[in-house]
Amino acid sequence: TGGKAGEVVPLSRIRKQIGAHMVRSKATSPHVLQAVEVDFHAVDAARGARGKAWRDREGFGLTYLPFIARARLTRSSSFPASTPRLMATISSCTRWSISASRWISGSRD
Fold this sequence. Notes:
The chain has helices at about 15-30, 40-60, 65-75, 85, 95-105. By secondary structure, it is mostly helical. The longest helix has 18 residues, at about 40-60. The chain starts with 12 loop residues before the first helix and ends with a helix.
């Protein structure tokens, strides 16, 4: 703070520690990107046809998420290795995965 624009100043001890931790985190954490091309023409048509009625009834817009969630949940049995129910048995899964598996299995506790 208070320095000139473009001035190079040495990093403080805490900034060095933060930087080292960020590098260590990036090196040890898994980083994955998976992309799938999907034709959303039918979804766009459905959103267009039902969007206004949905907004009037619910008070907010109809997003892509319900379509994606329904497609994913109805096809889970076709891909058992990736179902949320299996993910709930893995100790490193996220809380969302566990909650989703309880929701899918019908358990609400």
